[in-house]
Amino acid sequence: MNVVVKGKQASRCEAPILVAAPHSTFLDGGIVYVTGFPSTICRYESGANNHIGKLINFTQPIYVWRDDPDSRQNTIQEIISRATSSLDWPQILIFPEGTCTNRSCLITFKPGAFFPGVPIQPVCIRYPNKLDTVTWTWEGPSALKLLWLTLSQPYSNCEIEFLPVYTPNEEEKQDPKLFARNVRAVMAKALNIPVVDYTYDDCKLLTKAKELNLPYASSLVEVIKLRRKLGLENANIEEKLINSSFKSKDYSSVTYEEFIRLLNISSENTESYQLFKKYDKENSGVIDFRNYLLGVLGISKERSTLAIFQIACKIYDQNGDGRLSSEDFCKAACQILGLSKEYALEIFDQIDRNQLGSILFENFLNYAQKKTEFISLFTSNKEEKLRQRNGDICPNYYNKKVD
């Protein structure tokens, strides 16, 4: 790795915090060596790794538990404590984007590094290689494949540029988000790339939407932001709709006038029309309102796959009586559970043994609880899901009873 360092790193007295961007690869970890082993903000899982955990611990990191609701506040308090301490702590190195991107832009900076209100030094990272073998994002090659491709080249280039220390003004000290935006603008200018108002949470939302096969998954981040501007986020209008008599109508072709009436929003707001157009990709003037409901309700709250499937069953229930025809069941099962239409029809026939032509959601539950292929729907623990999908790594055959 041919590493070129530009500029000069400031001391801890000059800048207690270093912010590095864009973050695009696991190879960015090399900046820890270049910057003299500062403390890092690190996921707890990384510190528990048998291979690099000891090296990470050596830097006296600040660990983050992403699933712990209190972890964010605890992390911020620890950053403030260290950055403003008179003790001889190392500098703190933070990747403020919070996730990997493809370096084509700078996404929203998390405000954690900017809460202390102390001078910080921006650090730009570039990989000026003809063939990109390092970018490791939410979609694309695995870390192992990227490592192999990188090692297959004689050398790779990396540039690390230390920009001048950024000292916040009084307004920025009082507003960490403003501080973060202004620093991001300075770094974007130095990198000659645009800024985009996406966050790590948006990436998580998109990933969840795609895993659940939600309609128009790639547009759901914009949909959520438009709903927030229209005041729909706390109104729970969509949830009230699927529990009301709206199901007695056909909502597969809804016009703009019907759309704003259903959501009780004003036609004069440009956001209302923008929200409608997210689902009117072909400019036909009508949308399938069920796609909107399923997408919004699928990601608006922390719901299990089973709960989202139940919502899909309500949305696709054409008669609104709680009984699902084979067509209704197939639409919900194919959309959320990722089943083929043939397999969904086969399951429907197995549940509908009396050939009534319809089933209840509870009938599916009773059926699915007895089938191993659906066991993950009833398991909330991620480790248990992984074990059920892949089996034990070292199964103990000797403790099994013999019939």
From TrEMBL:
Gene3D superfamilies: EF-hand. Belongs to the 1-acyl-sn-glycerol-3-phosphate acyltransferase family. Pathway: Phospholipid metabolism; Lipid metabolism; phospholipid metabolism. Keywords: Acyltransferase, Calcium, Lipid biosynthesis, Lipid metabolism, Membrane, Phospholipid biosynthesis, Phospholipid metabolism, Transferase, Transmembrane, Transmembrane helix. This is EF-hand domain-containing protein. It comes from the Eukaryota. It comes from Exocentrus adspersus. SUPFAM superfamilies: EF-hand, Glycerol-3-phosphate (1)-acyltransferase. One of its GO terms (molecular function) is calcium ion binding. GO terms for cellular component: endoplasmic reticulum; membrane. Residues 267-302, 304-339 form the EF-hand domain. The keyword Acyltransferase applies. The keyword Lipid biosynthesis applies. Its main location: membrane. InterPro entries: EF-hand-dom_pair (IPR011992), EF_Hand_1_Ca_BS (IPR018247), EF_hand_dom (IPR002048), LPCAT1-like (IPR045252), Plipid/glycerol_acylTrfase (IPR002123). It is found in: Membrane. One of its GO terms (biological process) is phospholipid biosynthetic process.
